[in-house]
Amino acid sequence: MTDETHQHGGQVLVASLKAQGVDRAFCIPGESFLAALDGLYDSDIETIVARHEGGAAMMAEADAKLTGRPGIAFVTRGPGATNASSGVHVAFQDSTPMILFVGQVARDQRDREAFQEVDYGAMFAPLAKWVATIDRVERIPEYVSHAFHVAQSGRPGPVVLALPEDMLSSPCSARPVAQAVVPSGEASSGDVGAIITRLSQAERPLVIVGGGGWSAEACQALARFAEICEVPVGASFRCQDYLDNRHPNYVGDIGIGINPALAQRVRDADVILALGARLGEMTTSGYTLLTPPVPEQCLIHVHADPSEIGRVYRPELAVVARAGVLVKQLASRAEAPRVARRDWVAKARADFDTWQQLEATPGALRMENVVNHLNQALPDDAILTNGAGNYSAWLHRYYRYRGWRTQLAPTSGSMGYGLPAAVAAKLRYPQREVICLAGDGCFQMVSQEFGTACQYGANLIVLISNNGMYGTIRMHQQRKYPQRPSATDMVNPDFAALARAYGAFGAVVTRDDEFPEALAQARRAGTPAIIELRIDREALAPRLRLEQEA
Fold first, then answer.
1. Distance between CA 284 and CA 397 in Å, rounded?
2. 87 in Cβ contact with 71 (< 8 Å)
3. How is the beta sheet containing 317-320 ordered, strand by strand?
4. Is residue 62 located within the same domain as residue 33?
5. Is 97 part of a structural domain of the chain?
6. pLDDT tens by residue, 509-536
7. Which of 116, 212, 329, 459 could be cross-linked to 156 through a Cys-Cys bond (beta carbons 3.0 to 4.6 Å apart)?
8. Does 435 lie in the same domain as 306?
9. What is the CA radius of gyration of the chain?
10. Do residues 530 and 506 lie in contact, with contact meaning Cβ atoms separated by under 8 Å?
11. Per the domain annotation, does 180 fall within a domain?
């Protein structure tokens, strides 16, 4: 180890990360932060080298979702930072704690448009909670400590710290700061009592869960609270693993392609408790399930960020608190309702069970049957990841998530998220099964990260829904400009051959009866795996068909 009196800034930076409990960082190496790479050399922080900065940032974001601690990524200046911005945006919209370290030009070259120079403060301002440049080497521990406090406090989110090259390589004797102390996020006793009282008096209450800052313990408390208070629980967009989907109080996801019966229940509810959910466009079906600015339902909005409350909807009761903390308080004071509403919960659950019944789609290989087999074959703790695309509609509708953090998916709707997230998940939990679902377009935005999985022995399984087009956009074209497809067709490679080129398992499935054996072989392979699912172009979504073109 290097003598503390003869350290450079990169070594102090890494020591500061260790003091914050960091055990893994994702990166694409760059000459702008060589000193940080040197600091990582003799540390016990595992450094995962991705293939693209966007992939590295998404891996860090997914790792943070799984651990509850800030994910760490290092990228180089200029193009490295712009590439990584996609992962920062995911972290921002998903309320995920994350810290992106970006190399920067030397301090004496600033504001000259030096090679790869970017004004990170301007670039990342709308995407991150805090953006700063560390100009003095002795302040590295201070900035790192502040970054960890900001990323985890209130509504969690990403922080970006720029590292001028000459600053980072300068001698430094500063010492790390102890681990960040994050506010509890609890609500007042009065607020907890007010929520319980209003729910107790409601005839048709509905709870919508989502947002950041949750944990396995919080999800267990949510189940107890729902049972005692007799309230149905719906999950906001891509938050379906907050409550075991087999629980009798779970009534489905309130997002894209919502069950029409559940959508009507949202409209019919007399009290809605939004626990951590932002109530954005996806969760409100384009701001139609609740009418802005004053919804017809009595809205109780719980959110960690006071500026989020009242942004679109005026609540009747506003509580600034971490939903994952508050739900434990609610569970400890939960009481049976004063009005009979077991039928309200039971009917909502029956609507969900009906919605789960498979609807046949065209083709010899059908996504509803693929997902249904995953339900039957995978263990309860399997982690499923996905990016964006119509293929995910089958996953969201038919898969039953059975535990906390078994779903990793971007609420930002970012294509390409599923594979990097799956790499991070398999590295974090190598004993758990990790399945990535991707479309042919979604996968090819990040296909190079399959190489990262192979390098590090992350034996994930990728299911690629291949219909030879950007299906979501083709769907919208058919609705608005029928029979006029434009810029949506794709010519794809042999994805199974790509896997074999990496020394991994590859298979092609064209019929329903082939998938169970292909999945079984992939699970036994002992390597990363790709199963290419050749899907009929007519099957756009569970309830959507592409009309035959003239």
1. 17
2. no
3. 250-254, 233-236, 205-209, 271-275, 298-303, 317-320
4. yes
5. yes
6. 999 999 999 999 999 999 999 999 999 8
7. 212
8. no
9. 24
10. yes
11. no
Q: Is 107 exposed, middle or buried (0-12, 13-18, 19+ CB in 10 A)?
A: middle
Length of the chain: 550
Beta strands, E only, 467-521: 505-509
* Spatial separation of the C-alpha atoms in residues 40 and 543, rounded to whole Å: 51
Taking the C-alpha atoms of residue 411 and residue 319, their distance in angstroms, rounded to an integer, is 23
| Peptide bond between residue 493 and the one before it cis (omega within 30 degrees of 0) | no
How far is Cα 203 from Cα 159, in angstroms, rounded to an integer? 43
Same domain, 346 and 383: no
With CA atoms as reference, report the closest residue to 370 among 349, 397, 343, 389.
397
**How do residues 150-193 score in pLDDT, each as one tens digit?**
999 999 999 999 999 999 999 999 999 999 999 999 999 999 99
CATH value at residue 414: 3.40.50.970
One domain for residues 114 and 148: yes
Question: Is 199 found in the same domain as 120?
Answer: no
The DSSP output letter for 178 is P
pTM of this prediction exceeds 0.85:
yes
Is residue 416 assigned to a domain? Answer: yes
Q: What sign has the CA pseudo-torsion 228, 279, 58, 141?
A: negative
Return mean pLDDT, the chain: 93
pLDDT in tens, 212-253: 999 999 999 999 999 999 999 999 999 999 999 999 999 999
Q: How close are the terminal C-alpha atoms of the chain, in Å?
A: 71
Domain that holds residue 392: 367-545
Q: What is the dihedral of CA 359, 241, 411, 74, to 10 degrees?
A: -130
The domain total for the chain is: 3
Q: Strands 539-541 and 544-545: what pairing?
A: antiparallel
Paired with 102 in beta bridges are 75, 162
Clarify whether residues 193 and 297 are in a common domain. yes
How far apart are the C-alpha atoms of 147 and 137, rounded to whole Å? 16
- What six digits make up the tokens of 512? 């329903």
381 and 335 in a common domain: no
- CB-CB neighbours of 492 under 10 Å: 17
Q: Is residue 477 within a helix (H) or strand (E), and if so which, with residue range?
A: helix 471-480
Residues 51 and 144 in one domain: yes
Query: How far, in whole angstroms, is CA 516 from its chain's centroid?
Result: 28
